[in-house]
Design a protein that fits this description.
172 residues; alpha+beta; Glutaredoxin; four-stranded antiparallel β-sheet; 4 helices; 31% strand; Thiol peroxidase; Tpx_Peroxidase_subfamily
Amino acid sequence: MAQERTGAATFKGNPITLIGPELKVGDQAPDFTLSKNLVEDASLKDFAGKVKLISVVPSLDTGVCDAQTRRFNVEAGDLGDNVVVLTVSVDLPFAQARWCGAAGVDRVVTLSDYKTRSFGEDYGVLIKEFQLDMRSIFVVDAEDRITYVEYLPEMTDSPNFEQAISAVKALL
């Protein structure tokens, strides 16, 4: 059974339980299999040799997640071809595609953890009570080592965009 971190975070001030380990700077990023669409998957290896900013959101159809993804979409335009910005949620792939089209988001790769929630468990962000992935940020270098982690203590808070972007730029 996966490790549970009860009270590791809150939702509107109420404790929630995160399933999985708390990853740290220096850890090897766990490989993943996430859905790009209903028939095609993506893994960490698909982004080999690139710096990866992994932005995890509970659902694109909420205000904070919408703002977070739009912000990283804008930032992605200034980071160059050696960086990929991935947004992970448990939204269905066609819902992610619909949202991106409506929002004009075209520089972020959206990936869905809806099938198995294994990304959530492996990265320590699966919320037991909601079966959503907790808002968090991971910066992973070209060798798949984690160089920056931000687990948000409150689900409705925004991440520290400046620190995350600085962590990416430090690898370029």
